[in-house]
């Protein structure tokens, strides 16, 4: 495990953006990156966009989302891919043929498709205060799981509700996520964390316990795992 | 996970020996391999010895044992390193400066020393019918553990007794092992298995469950894990 | 430059075969190897065949010839590919879809096709007493050349005559070869040499002069160049 | 050969800086970079300095100069290392133990020391309008040369004079340079070029001729050679 601490969100985002760029510069025929939506990487994408748009230098880099929350009622793309489009794909001008969508229609072949594409070179993901990563919330998946569909019980619906502007009837009955085993297959994993709300789970990750109730703890066993955080997230480390 | 099946012990040993050789041929300043004692790799070492001895082509390859059972009463090296010397180091003419012993005196710095040496390029290990690997017997270590000293209760002593020719008073009160986390840090893991006694655990490993009561299941999460077995060990696979 | 000396042709061939195998074991989606015909590698292929046939472990390994002498009169494959089939492809059971033929009909797209296939991971080649490699005989190609068609003047025809059992009317007016630039593009180059007839050119290669009249001297500038020879070929080295 | 064209010096410098950073982010125990002085990389260093200073993330990155012009009369460091200190080492806060000076006192062991340090991961260098790179001016070194001392005849002294503010008596009788063979040993080579004065030599490099009178042409044979330039330098390319 490699640990990098930036003094604030800006510096954490800069470090993370530099890491992502370093994979995009890899001398390979094709580079496959799985990237995260949500609020933590917002600034990182702002730093990446000007470096990536208007150039053909990264035409060999392909992108994958690793989870998806479908909208229930509308015929539109899910929450994750919509967020990634807005934060990164659209402003960066990534063409459709390099965006590999995971959704409710194709999740059963996600792991197989990625393997056929050459495997993921890197996954960059966040961590929840409850220890979840991607859609692997505690008690929803097992360490050994590949990409799966998770049914939403009341507890999960309540968690997801804010993503749907608290409109209960929009909340879907299930969502999709790559499992712990899918993510561990990637050649490198980068986790980003910021803010004091993440300090407790960061402390847990650094203590070295691996516990299925804190799903992200398994990622610390990956031989190429890098944790990038700000000082607030690191505040409980000695 | 990559799975290779040889038709018998001879073919499994040949495949495993070829893999080990391919790491020894890596174009690196230094290659660090952690290798296994016991009966499963016996034939593999017989195939390796003539390729490795009497040449300076592999002077950059260093060897590490990953567990050790010290003798209780005698001032002599432990069971594992003694076995490795007899099966491989001595006939292959590996000089002392490339043999990095783990024992009861230095285990607390094993992980640190390996990291300083550049990390392990590969670990080759066997698997027990009970799902143990190295000295990680069920209920003795946790997935998150680094190298540790395991105290031997009655159950463990009974298990180890045959290694000491059933002489109870030779059996030590503890042994040493690199933990699941230590092994997962290696860049590649190769597991070998032969014989019908291993068919059940092989089936478990292939089913994708990760369970701390079958410690070896965690290794299947490593992004570069290769399983080499004979047809008997594979006999319960569909 | 890495230099390995076996005591005789047997040992040189064993080392070379081990190297070739180590590339076939590389953990990649596809491995591209360009391999040499002629008499020097004969024993090497004998050692490789039993390791490669009757297994699907190497289904990701693709083969390329790097030169070709077409027959003039017959509607048949050229000298090089015919030799490779006899020595290796046929006994090893390599299927057609993994044999990528270079010939007089497709040479102009050879470099482009190889690049599209992901580039060559390794080229294994011999060296002539006159310093030629592949079909790059002195004064026929320049260091900067890619794959090319070489017209055969009288001097060249005399050289090639024995390959055609001294039947003058079979000797073609031209042959095909990957150029020095094509070969230098490969990620690794392995040169094999045996016999006292090669001692002089080996000495030249080791002295470090780079001279277009001894085409093989340029290969010593490749950052991953390995020279494997027997003691006779090494006999003029101090 | 990989070719990247930025629209002006600013964009070329940004691309080059990103490349250098991508090597500094490599997951290795130690990264060895050989970097260039002179005016072409000036802006690149300005972009690198804020990314490199005040962090311990790059403590594994070591720096090497590849040529040196010693001052004749003074007991002070040479022209190249002085320039590198001013442009990069000092503002970036690189400590002495990671600066590996090549000078007139140690040049005979430069290649050996670099090999012992694990080899160069990357060299970034410029190109002269006359086709020189490092101190390999036409007719001063051969393609096969390692690090060497070049005696300055009248012609060379006239060339170097401006570096010494046209003070003739400061101009040394010799200078030091890594040779073409030394540079080709690096795992990656990056060449930067800007301005219309470089357009002619860039055209020559792209045409594929390899000519000892234009020393830089040999670098195009390196399997991992990247050429980064601005539009002016690219203006004669079709």
From TrEMBL, chains A, B, C, D:
The keyword Hydrolase applies. GO terms for biological process: carbohydrate metabolic process; N-acetylglucosamine metabolic process. Residues 17-219 form the Glucosamine/galactosamine-6-phosphate isomerase domain. InterPro entries: Glc/Gal-6P_isomerase (IPR006148), GlcN6P_deaminase-like (IPR052960), Glucosamine6P_isomerase (IPR004547), NagB/RpiA_transferase-like (IPR037171). It is an enzyme of class 3 (hydrolase). Its EC number is 3.5.99.6. It holds the Pfam family Glucosamine_iso. The keyword Hydrolase applies. It comes from the Bacteria. GO terms for molecular function: glucosamine-6-phosphate deaminase activity. This is Glucosamine-6-phosphate deaminase. Keywords: Carbohydrate metabolism, Hydrolase.
């Amino acid at each position: 495990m490699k640990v990098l601490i930036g003094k604030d969100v800006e510096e954490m985002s800069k470090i993370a953006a530099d890491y992502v760029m370093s994979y995009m510069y890899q001398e390979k025929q094709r580079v496959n990156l799985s990237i995260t939506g949500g609020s933590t990487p917002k600034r990182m994408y702002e730093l990446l966009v000007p470096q990536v748009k208007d150039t053909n230098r990264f035409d060999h880099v392909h992108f994958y989302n690793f989870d998806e929350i479908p909208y229930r009622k509308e015929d539109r793309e899910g929450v994750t891919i919509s967020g990634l489009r807005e934060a990164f794909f659209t402003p960066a001008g990534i063409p459709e043929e390099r965006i590999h969508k995971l959704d409710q229609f194709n999740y059963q072949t996600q792991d197989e498709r990625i393997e056929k594409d050459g495997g993921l070179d890197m996954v960059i993901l966040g961590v929840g205060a409850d220890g979840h990563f991607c859609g692997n919330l505690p008690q929803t998946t097992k360490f050994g799981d590949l990409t799966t569909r998770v049914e939403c019980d009341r507890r999960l619906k309540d968690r997801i509700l804010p993503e749907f502007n608290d409109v209960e009837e929009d909340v879907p009955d299930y969502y999709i996520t790559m499992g712990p085993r899918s993510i561990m297959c990637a050649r490198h994993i980068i986790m980003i964390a910021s803010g004091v709300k993440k300090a407790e789970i960061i402390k847990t990750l650094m203590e070295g316990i691996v516990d299925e109730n804190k799903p992200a703890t398994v990622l610390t066993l990956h031989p190429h795992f890098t944790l990038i955080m700000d000082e607030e997230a690191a505040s409980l480390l000695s």
